[in-house]
Amino acid sequence: MTAIPKEEYLLKCTSACAGCSSSLCLRYVTKAAGPDTVLVVPACCTSVIQGIYPNTAMDIPVYNIAFAAAAACASGMSNAFRALERDTNVIVYAGDGGTVDIGIQALSGAFERGTDFLYICYDNEAYGNTGMQRSGATPLGARTTTTPGGKPTPKKDLDRIVEAHNPPYMATACSAYPLDLYKKVKKALSIEGPKFIHILAPCPPGWRYSSEKTVEMGKLAVKTGSWVLYERENGALTINGPSKAAMKKPLPLEDYIRGQGRFKGITPEALEEMRRQIQMTNARLSREAEGIC
Amino acid sequence: MLTIATGNKAVAAAVKAAKPGVIAAYPITPQTEIVEQIAEYVTSGDLATQYVPVESEHSAMAACIGASAAGVRTFTATSSHGLLYMHEMVHWAAGARLPIVMANVNRALGPGWNVWAEHSDAFSQRDTGWLQVFVSTVQEAYDATLMAFRIAEHEDVLLPVMVNLDGFTLSHITQSLEAVDPGDFIPPVRVPHAIDVENPCVYGPLTGPTEYYKFRWDMERSMRDAVGVIADVEREFAERFGRQYGVTEDYRCEDAEVIIVAVGTLGKEAEVAVDLLREEGIAAGSMRLRWFRPFPKLDFGGRDVVVIDRDYSFGFGGVVAHSIRSTTGAEPYSVIAGLGGQEVTYGDIAGFVRTRQPGAEFWFGVNGNV
Ligand SMILES: Cc1ncc(C[n+]2csc(CCOP(=O)(O)OP(=O)(O)O)c2C)c(N)n1
Ligand code: SF4
């Protein structure tokens, strides 16, 4: 078993909500990255979780930047470290809103330029910081404060957009599988160039479930095939163990949906559409993993 | 109908009453409640509008520009970094002469991430060609938003209007609100240069040195005309709905020997300071500045002026103090107070008046004076 370092870079008593899985992920990401790391953080829950001046919950430097600018800022920083001949890790830790919506332009630019950095999108499928409005990553049918009747359109497929930039390494992860996340961060940081990890991070207030169910929620996402764990190294796809199992024998989608208040009142049509999309994505990924496409 | 509402909800209610054809918006604290309330109206069927939940403020303003150019009434709301992020499009909206209405919930700018009230966000847009009004109560937020559509869409103006309300101290407090049925006070919008496929034109094309300045002058002429339009619309509003506003809201100014000028909720707080000072025998008055663009012609009749700026132009001074110095010749006592939500009470304001030094600048809280 990989030994996870005891050092903590995210200290206790943050202002995260109880059961916040994105801060759990942050803890593992920073453990994997170690102290020679700068986190670039756009506006998101993390900009609150990190602490309010003059206090901080982080034991590594955190560079806060305007919402749309994280990848561009990290790109400048990474180039500066190169000029200084320093090996410091530059990691963007951004929410889904800051990634799939307002920040996607900067993300695309940084990837196209071949920036040496790791971009992590923790995906709680809404704008948590401002109180749960829809983002482009909110799934079909989910209620948010700006889609009180349920989101009419499906989740934006961020991974395929990133994939189109052909980064040397990209992966998905889930907060319910921290060891897997830890290893992926380690691997990403050992590779030169733009790397990307997309983490599904269940969020109790946003998804409307009680906070002790956070790990269970993440596991259900994977076991129902709603979230697929995989890695793509220089284009070659590997589906990770838990998702391989889920693809063979998925749990019913309802098991995942049922416990979440945000899906209350979802129409049968939306549910069917969600099922169809999951099946399509899973089929596409497994074909690709088998080298069929 | 009399209800109670927050400043944000009052704005949303006024928007509902004005029935825009397109609303494009992006959430940002402390404005978010406006966007959410409008989404509720749309979902519940109380407001029939195209609600476009865009991916950024730059896109929010761009969407409003497209919609307004197509000839429909448009609205958006933002704050602080959102406003700055749309800056390019904020210029564009005015230059394209589009009567967009936007609520800006005033908030400080980072870094030093701060969500509390400050006017630097709005003042940073002062040269964009937008009209700007600052309100101080929930009712005024409602009334000004409603009037903003009338003013922006007036054929002599056709410039966008920004309705500014202080973050939290107004956006999130509840007061009573009388919503009105605007009836024909808000007639259907008419954008004379709306896109018309029957009459194809190019909008905003390449414009050389012999033409460009004419468009700029035309904007300035409309700004000057806006002074009269604002007065007319506010007068008509008073006649119909019984609430009267002006470019400033003057309080006990007639016999005052010193006048406090402040913007937004601090302007209301100044009225309480005036009462306190009067009890002490100091003849104070207050003039809350409502319209910042077009900037009004003020007259202090040679009396002392204390200006409170909730903003600062670095290396220069308080924006309101300087505006007053350059337009009236007065030498105000310039107080910089309330930045990033710094608490300023009426007692503090009374203190500024008691210890005023005309012509000097004073930063509240610096050198241990809070
Ligand atoms: C230009 C700009 N617009 C809006 C905001 C307000 N804002 C701060 S964080 C946020 C949402 C963040 O959502 P996401 O990226 O999904 O991260 P989460 O909060 O869920 O962690 C918004 C809308 C801002 N800071 N700057
Ligand atoms: S809103 Fe969600 S992501 Fe944000 S701190 Fe709370 S639990 Fe975490």
Automatic annotation (TrEMBL), chain A:
Subunit comment: Heterotetramer of one alpha, one beta, one delta and one gamma chain.
Keyword list, A-Z: Oxidoreductase
Region (Disordered): 133-156
One MF term in the entry's GO annotations: 3-methyl-2-oxobutanoate dehydrogenase (ferredoxin) activity
InterPro entries: PorB-like, THDP-binding, TPP_enzyme_TPP-bd
Domain of life the protein comes from: Archaea
Record-level GO BP terms: organic acid metabolic process; sulfur compound biosynthetic process
EC number: 1.2.7.7
Protein name (record): 2-ketoisovalerate ferredoxin oxidoreductase
Residue ranges of domain Thiamine pyrophosphate enzyme TPP-binding in the record: 56-199
Enzyme class per UniProt: oxidoreductase
CDD domains: TPP_PFOR_porB_like (cd03376)
One family name in Pfam for this protein: TPP_enzyme_C
UniProtKB/TrEMBL annotation, chain B:
GO BP, sorted A to Z: organic acid metabolic process; response to oxidative stress; sulfur compound biosynthetic process
Domain Pyruvate flavodoxin/ferredoxin oxidoreductase pyrimidine binding positions: 14-234
MF terms (GO), sorted A to Z: oxidoreductase activity
Cross-referenced Gene3D superfamilies: 3.40.50.920, 3.40.50.970
Keywords associated with the record: Oxidoreductase, Pyruvate
Keyword Oxidoreductase: yes
Domain Pyruvate:ferredoxin oxidoreductase core residue range list: 256-349
Assembly notes: Heterotetramer of one alpha, one beta, one delta and one gamma chain.
The protein, known as: Pyruvate ferredoxin oxidoreductase
